[in-house]
């Protein structure tokens, strides 16, 4: 059966301009009737358009779909196999990314509902520092590893590290870095180098803190105030329960939001502890 362009457009639920675009892309080809001068399409064109629309849903580019019009069965099978492999990688990536989204969602809900301090075993973290206090760290191998953490892992964490010695000696110092959970190092094909610091999981005092987004300014102008905001309630808990700080403090950034006209950061602070002898 022969179809005019208007008839084909109605059958496919598209405009006549879309039909012309399909023809320009090589998906279909009209034949001109020598007697009437009209250009007609046939039943095969209907299948070709619907097949192309399905290929678009599969994620093939228009250039690939155009090339596939002349593919053999073997070539089409090979194209499908490659696309399935790409989709498997995309699905895995989105699955991993959803895990991070869910973790952030749960932590944000925790921040919105209560701010209790609790004890829990922390996770082992692999961290690369890019700022120590006011000192920016930019060695080539450090920057290479930072880039690997940021771009290879969909679950990379922005972290603040407070060295134990800076708390013990009263010289409160905040370091910034990117961290990846131990189980994600192999998952995302990441490796260690001399700039990778490993923070082993330890019994820790945990709780969510809200601090102004300009942490750097506070660290310079009023470090004691920043200390109180970040870990004041954690230290109070430790004192009340006869605990002592047993390692560097890690703060995992949950989110940055606008609150009362100011930018604030919510972070999960984790203070490793030991128990004093009673």
UniProtKB/TrEMBL annotation:
UniProt domain HTH merR-type: residue ranges: 2-71
A Pfam family this chain is assigned to: MerR
SUPFAM superfamilies on file: Putative DNA-binding domain
Coiled-coil boundaries: none
Residues passing through the membrane, by range: none
Keywords: DNA-binding, Transcription, Transcription regulation
PANTHER family: HEAVY METAL-DEPENDENT TRANSCRIPTIONAL REGULATOR HI_0293-RELATED, REDOX-CYCLING DRUG-SENSING TRANSCRIPTIONAL ACTIVATOR SOXR
Protein name: MerR family transcriptional regulator
Taxonomic source organism: Lachnospira intestinalis
């Amino acid at each position: 059966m022969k179809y005019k362009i208007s008839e084909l457009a109605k059958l496919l639920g598209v405009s006549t301009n879309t039909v012309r675009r399909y023809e320009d892309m090589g998906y279909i080809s009209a034949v001109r009737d020598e007697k009437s001068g009209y250009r007609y399409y046939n039943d095969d064109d209907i299948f070709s358009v619907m097949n192309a629309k399905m290929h678009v849903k599969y994620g093939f580019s228009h250039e690939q779909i155009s090339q596939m019009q002349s593919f053999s069965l073997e070539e089409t099978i090979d194209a499908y196999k490659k696309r399935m492999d790409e989709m498997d990688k995309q699905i895995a990536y989105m699955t991993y990314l959803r895990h991070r989204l869910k973790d952030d969602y749960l932590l944000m809900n925790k921040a919105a509902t209560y701010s209790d301090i609790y004890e829990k075993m922390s996770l082992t973290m692999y961290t690369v520092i890019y700022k120590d206090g006011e000192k920016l760290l930019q060695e080539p191998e450090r920057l290479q590893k930072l880039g690997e953490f940021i771009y290879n892992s969909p679950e990379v964490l922005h972290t603040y590290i407070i060295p134990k010695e800076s708390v013990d000696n009263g010289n409160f110092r905040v370091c910034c870095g990117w961290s990846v959970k131990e189980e994600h190092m192999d998952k995302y094909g990441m490796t260690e180098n001399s700039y990778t610091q490993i923070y082993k999981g330890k019994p820790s005092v945990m709780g969510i803190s809200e601090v102004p987004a300009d942490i750097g300014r506070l660290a310079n102008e009023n470090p004691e105030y920043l200390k109180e905001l970040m870990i004041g309630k954690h230290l109070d808990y430790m004192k009340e329960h006869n605990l002592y700080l047993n390692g560097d403090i890690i703060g995992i950034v949950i989110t940055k939001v606008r609150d009362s006209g100011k930018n604030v950061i919510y972070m999960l602070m984790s203070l490793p502890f030991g128990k004093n002898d009673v």
